[in-house]
Amino acid sequence: MLVIRLNKVTSTQDFAEVISNMLYEDFLIIAEEQTKARGRLGRSWYSPKGGLWFTYVKKNFRTEMIQLSGLKVAVAVLDVLRKFVDAKIRWPNDIVVHDKKIAGILIEAKTYEDNINLSDLFIGVGIDVAVKEFPSDVNATSLYLELRKEVELSIDEVITKIDEYLNVDNKKAVDIVNQFLSIKDRDVILKGENWEKKCKALFVDYMGRLITECGIYEVDDVHRVETL
Ligand code: BTN
């Protein structure tokens, strides 16, 4: 597979989107540092040296499989991180340790004009491996801060796990999410565009929606989930 390693880039996601039109096979863009990285819903993503920042592009990805792909990638990253720390999933696809974010996943897709059943899938993953401090407004942690020592995270292992979990059936992936759901049976504040609601989170259903005591929530409608 084509792997491009960059010292510094605005965003591996932007870089991947630009070159993807020229390529026909899956590829991986890894950067040591990003200056304009983004998270879900256009938020910025802090990415100094010390993290694992990459975009993995799957070509000819079945469009119908995009819906649960974020959740499956979260399960893959969780699997790798649980070898080191007691990581959990905060729906929809944040990885947290003691409610502090340690990894984030951004899924973007571009459906082919000549075949709407297939898409380029841009899997953006940020893992705080050896980040030593965060800006005061970022509630995050890193493997280094949790373990107080440097650990090596193998990108090959992360990619192998992503491929493995993208191929598992939806039920199995969702079962794992529920097993490690950080907000299960907890009161959370759900925030959308112009609303917020305090609810008890129950579980994630097989369509990837959050079932709470106050209703069912779709991933795209919830901008933020805060634990109390
Ligand atoms: C989120 O939690 O909102 C998702 C964060 C995703 C960050 C990664 S880092 C590599 C890739 N490039 C980006 O600009 N974003 C993703």
Characterization of the model:
The chain is α+β, with helices and mostly antiparallel strands. It has 2 domains: 180 residues, Bira Bifunctional Protein, Domain 2 (BirA Bifunctional Protein, domain 2, 2-Layer Sandwich); 46 residues, Roll (SH3 type barrels). Helices cover 21% and strands 37% of the residues. The protein contains 5 helices and 12 strands. The strands form 2 sheets. A 7-stranded mixed β-sheet has the order 1-2-3-7-6-5-4, sandwiched between helices. Strands 11-10-9-8-12 form a 5-stranded antiparallel β-sheet. The model has no long low-confidence stretch (mean pLDDT 96). Bound molecules: biotin (BTN). The site of biotin has 21 residues, from α1, β3, β6 and β7.
Task: For this entry, give a set of tags.
single chain, 228 residues, alpha+beta, BirA Bifunctional Protein, domain 2, SH3 type barrels, 2 domains, 7-stranded mixed β-sheet, 5-stranded antiparallel β-sheet, 5 helices, 12 strands, 37% strand, globular, binds biotin, Biotin_CoA_COase_ligase, Biotin--protein ligase
